[in-house]
Write a structure and sequence with these properties.
By secondary structure, this protein is an alpha+beta fold. It folds into 3 domains: 84 residues, no CATH class; 69 residues, Carboxypeptidase-like, regulatory domain (Immunoglobulin-like), CATH 2.60.40.1120; 170 residues, no CATH class. It is built from 8 helices and 22 strands. The strands form 6 sheets. Strands 9-8-13-18-17 form a 5-stranded antiparallel β-sheet, with no helix packed on it. Strands 3-2-5-6 form a 4-stranded antiparallel β-sheet, with no helix packed on it. The longest helix is centred in the first third of the chain and has 29 residues.
Length: 403
């Protein structure tokens, strides 16, 4: 079989047919764009994938424009469909700008804690921080708390405290706690002629004496309850809470040193001009009370004005002191067998905040985090000239490192 090349006339016919088809396709595309005017991304991709020359696609997009922005994903799709760099450059120029990112939704509102308690006018603490006092109707609305688990305590003098260590707060929600405080009921006085009266009560020897009602015991969990004068640390371990007392620390007499290295006797006897410095030491390398908190809370209890008796267990410092501002929180320098209070302890004392929560009762907390080490509350009357009051003026504790 002999192959014959197509004649020139036949080639002209094929070319004419192709031209007609291309012209018809262009007309169809033009007619389709009369309504919408601009080409969509899908239309441009279809032109490229069906084999239309990039030059014709470029002509169409310049004529009708496009309705889609040129973002990274769109450029990648067009390139995969066969778009040339020239076509991409044209599309970048005529494409509408990228729409702005949608505005993120506003954060949910903070949770709200509402207290409803009886009998009213009680103090409310959240995580041992006082939030205020309920109204006479027993209502208090608390805002500004984080959306997490909190510990709630409601206290009122003469009543048992209400406590809940699992108050859950969620964003945008209101949690209402209803509580009824139970009174601390003292033993009812026995009537002379009533039930329970003993023969002694009914005898003439009893005279006109009446039984005194017993004073209700203090609530061990309420810092507003009276205690023996002294300094207490509020310690919480899980659901257990207790007040740990800082006992007076034994201290040695202050020792004087001169800058020349000679003792005080040599300095005084010869009228030397060397500078004298004083130091006091506490017995032992560590305090018996150990803490791990960086901002522990302490409570100072002073002698009540209506007290008829007094115990010296709080130390001599509490014989005269009436406010925690008479005490300084000082860091100790640990030695091998003792701890030393430097002579410049007043200048280096840590700043503390004081809040009176009841008559003669103060809450004290360091204003900044306290680093691990040995510390002591020093009564400001501990030094009178160069004479120390002794161990009853120092109340020590230590803060240990945590893993």
């Amino acid at each position: 079989m002999v192959y014959k090349s197509p004649s020139k006339k036949r080639l002209q016919v094929v070319a004419a047919i192709s031209l007609c088809l291309w012209t018809g396709s262009l007309a169809v595309h033009a007619a389709a764009q009369e309504a919408s005017k601009k080409l969509s991304k899908e239309q441009v991709l279809k032109l490229l994938t069906q084999g239309d020359p990039p030059a014709r696609v470029e002509y169409l997009v310049q004529k009708y424009g496009v309705s889609f922005p040129m973002v990274a994903d769109t450029e990648r799709e067009l390139t995969q469909a066969g778009a040339t760099q020239e076509l991409l450059d044209v599309l970048r120029k005529i494409a509408p700008p990228k729409p702005p990112d949608p505005t993120p939704p506003p954060p949910p509102p903070a949770p709200v804690l509402v207290i409803h308690e009886k009998p009213g006018e009680a103090d409310v603490y959240v995580d041992d921080v006082r939030q205020g006092r309920t109204s006479p109707d027993g209502i208090l609305k608390i805002t500004g708390l984080s959306a997490t688990r909190h510990t709630l305590r409601i206290s009122l003098e003469g009543y048992h405290s209400f406590e809940d260590d699992n108050v859950q707060l969620a964003p945008g929600e209101t949690n209402t706690v209803v509580a009824t405080l139970q009174p601390l009921e003292p033993p009812a006085p026995r009537s002379k002629d009533g039930p329970g009266a003993s023969e002694t009560d009914a005898s003439p020897a009893a005279g006109n004496l009446t039984a005194k009602s017993a004073k209700p015991p203090p609530d061990p969990h309420d810092p507003r309850s009276p205690r023996e004068p002294g300094i207490y640390y509020f310690q919480q371990s899980g659901n257990e809470r207790q007040f740990v007392r800082l006992e007076p620390a034994p201290a040695g007499m202050p020792v004087a040193k001169t800058s020349s290295g000679r003792g005080l006797g040599a300095w005084a006897g010869y009228g030397g001009s060397s500078k004298v410095s004083w130091k006091t030491t506490l017995v032992g390398p560590k305090a018996p009370v150990r803490l791990v908190e960086r901002r522990p809370v302490f409570y100072f209890y002073f002698r009540s004005t209506d007290s008829t008796s007094y115990s010296l267990s709080g130390g001599n410092a509490f014989l005269n002191a009436t406010t925690p501002r008479e005490f300084l929180l000082v860091r100790l320098e640990s030695k091998k067998k003792e701890r030393e209070i430097a002579s410049n302890y007043i200048k280096d004392a840590l700043t503390c905040d004081h809040e009176q929560i009841a008559p003669g009762i103060y809450k004290v907390q360091s204003r900044a985090d306290v680093e691990p080490g040995e510390y002591v509350f020093v009564y400001s009357g501990a030094y009178s000239g160069v004479v120390a009051m002794g161990g009853s003026s120092y109340f020590d504790f230590g803060i240990d490192k945590t893993n």
